[in-house]
Amino acid sequence: MWIFTRLDKELKQAIKLLSLGTFLEYFDLFLYAHMAVLLNDLFFPPADTHAKSLLTAFAFCSSFIFRPIGAMLFGYIGDTYGRKITVVITTFMMAITCLIMANAPTYSQIGIAAAWIVTGCRILQGMSSMGEIVGAQLFLTEATPSPVRFPVVGLINVFGDLGATMSIAVGVLATSYGFNWRIAFWIGSAVALIGSFARTTLRESPEFADARKRLQSVATRAKEDITQIKARPFYNEPIAVKTALAYFLIKCSGAVFIYFIFFYATTTFKLVFSYDAHQILLHNFLLGIVGIIAWSTLRTYLSTKIHPLKILTFAWIGISIFIPFLPWLLNYVTAPWQLFLIQSYIILFWPNDLPGVPIFFKNFPVFKRFSTASFLFALAYAVVYTITSFGLIYLVNYLGYWGLLFLMVPVLIGYKYGLNHFIQLEKAAGRYPKLINWDMDW
């Protein structure tokens, strides 16, 4: 896009490094998640159908439940020492866990210890991915001028989706051509190690670096210790509770729908259409392609012309009209392509934060931005994925597909509340409904 030509060479290099790193992080993170239909049988004990559903939910949730801890840890590092060091550490962590999983013995070899090893790695991967995605998005939010920051930050999501989709492709190869799944983890580990060292060449994001310099300058002029200056109000700017709640609710909605699209629907393919692991992975791979084209890439492009919150409002309308009919449609699905169309529609109107990420981040204080955004993101996904992955098993058992509405309708209401809050903030700042000009920064 022409707007990227106005960025300097150093910023372009940062975009490349952060995009590549996010691609690798999400490839590594979702490699096991999408191959769970194959790998759970290798690392977990044999079980009946119901127990396997619970084990699958547990394996999936293990990488998200501990994300808030990772968010607090890397949020502190990011707000105290900088955005750069955080993305370097998280990439290195992902590389090490992938290396362990590539060489992990199976359940048939060492028993239940195999399940604990894999679960431990999944927990660490979830923690590191939290610092990775927020760190990359925040770095580019603070380093890029408006309005180009919207498509630039959107690229992080595009490459994240590419990484997740490539992980599905590896699963397809493993289930159809006898491709050794361990090789994928070895490759992911090696490339992530290279990526972590490459990211050491990044410079700190300008906004955070300038804020830290201003803080040091005040301490020097006042002849006070930096710790005393940090106790002053301008450093401890409070986080607006309504803004935090609004962002939390926005992230909650995204988690519910992505779980339904890529993970819950596999149950239907198994029970109704008798799909095997290879067919499920191939189906999800095609959905991944739809997501890259119809969701992340399309929204990233539209953000160069339309205010991001307008795009998200349109997405909310599109999904809200459709969801009340979803249980009825699922009850009358008679062919895989029909379910594919349903999933594709939800992907297109998926209510999440893209491309409004920079707007949400910028409404948090700079010295608390990383820790606040990452913790709320992690908490939303940990809570919602846990409730959704386990709750749907019982809701659908007792209520049929109408049980889906007990999760989807509340999060859509919460999403609209959160979106309206940020629209009001943008209006008050004179940045809505039109995109601000290139030369006007925040």
Automatic annotation (TrEMBL):
It comes from the Bacteria. The keyword Transmembrane applies. It is a multi-pass membrane protein. Residues 14-442 form the Major facilitator superfamily (MFS) profile domain. It is found in: Cell membrane. InterPro entries: MFS, MFS_dom, MFS_trans_sf. The chain crosses the membrane at residues 14-34, 54-78, 85-104, 152-177, 244-265, 277-297, 309-330, 342-361, 373-395, 401-419. SUPFAM superfamilies: MFS general substrate transporter. Keywords: Cell membrane, Membrane, Transmembrane, Transmembrane helix, Transport. The keyword Protein transport does not apply. One of its GO terms (molecular function) is transmembrane transporter activity. One of its GO terms (cellular component) is plasma membrane. This is Major facilitator superfamily (MFS) profile domain-containing protein.
